[in-house]
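Pipeline run #58 for the internal structure catalog. This entry was flagged by the ingest filter as a single-chain record with no existing model, so it goes straight to prediction. Upstream metadata was stripped on purpose; only the residue string is passed forward. Reviewer on rotation: M.T. Logging verbosity set to normal.
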Amino acid sequence: MIMKLSLNDLRAVTGELKVFYSSFSDFFRNRTRSVLKQAFQYLQGQIMVNERGNMTNIEKVVPDCNHQSLQHFISNSQWDEEGVISEIQRQVSELIGNPVHGSLHLDESGFLKSGDSSVGVKRQYCGRFGKVENCQVGVFLGYALWSRRTLIDKRLYLPEDWANDPVRRERCGVPDNITFKTKAELGLEMLLAARERGVPFAWIGMDCFYGQQSWFLDRLDSESLLYIADVPSDTRVWLERPEVEVPVRKGKQGRHPTRKQVVEGEPVEVRKLVEELPEDAWNHIFLRDSERKEIWCDMACLRIYQVRNGLPGPESWLILRKEENGEKKYQFSNASPNTKMNRLAEMSCSRYWIERALEDAKGEVSMAEYEVRGWLGWHHHMTMVLLAMLFLLTLQVKWKDKAPMLTIQDVREILEVILPRRRITEKEILEIVKRKHKARESARKSHHKRKSKPN
């Protein structure tokens, strides 16, 4: 494919960023205050800094900004965060929204933190590293249309001990109306809000963490929301609906049984079905394109009954996949019984794109590089991450006919070069180094103070 992107296209980028930003400007000002300038500078910094995208480095590259004003904008200023999220979802819907092939996806990400002062931080499972770490955890909602993807909403997971600790809540500015919610409850909240805002989508994808929570799948089903959910390999199912009945009381003593039980037959683990299915049950199915080749797998789709409290639950699809690398995947879906295998395959592989969206956020717009400890700061930073991602996607879609193979990474590299950069003077760099020195000294004293406290 011949790339037709021209110098004139690149030179127009600065103006396009200003036009894009202007559609969000009302959310960064009110009748008495405005942080329009700081919000625009922070947005520029996220897409220009090709290293740790913290406020110190943003200050070095973005014209006419300083660390203190950026810190105030993120940590303390009052602007309409929910308005920004709503407008992001509206623009994503307009840009790549598709009610037949578009999909919403839930996933979470951990952010390593030292100490115990950052809001929601504790030793908990961090999916990013696959083990328990001292971290914060965010739950994110993504949107995908084939390879086009972006994040459109976020929630900070506040562990129960944090939610019930008034001292830590006050110190980190956790609002009074925030109560403990599980990650799945936070995910459901975002899904229903996106539907309420009119985001067009055909199905919802999720990993094993959400897929193994029966109440969550049942709630989606009751809301008439189509899902495809990864499930663990030891998940049990029935291939045929077993007979259930209330057993007869044995003997003359004791209460009469009232709960139904399965008369005969045990559910089988899904990993055993992979070994037991005949060859003709498998189909070689195309999943998606990668940058280097087409991705195919062997897939089998069975109608099964999920297990609910030891009894047969809803009838659904079990999708079994054998990957080219030997990996096996297992998924449930409440798609209708007459759904074609190609459609199930399209749904089955779509969760890959939320993983890529999180990689984009961390690698291209400094999602994990934030210098805040409080509730407001975390939510403001993540909102700006979503905003920066949307601009990258906007340019990728705008240039798709001229550069069909253009990636989000390519777009970000173009912006890094094209957007005007600050020229740092000797005096300014000296002040930056002095401030960093002061911060290190303060952190050192704080550390020694903690260590010297009696147990």
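catalog note: The radius of gyration is 25 Å.
catalog note: DSSP finds 17 helices and 14 strands in the chain.
status: ready for reviewer M.T.
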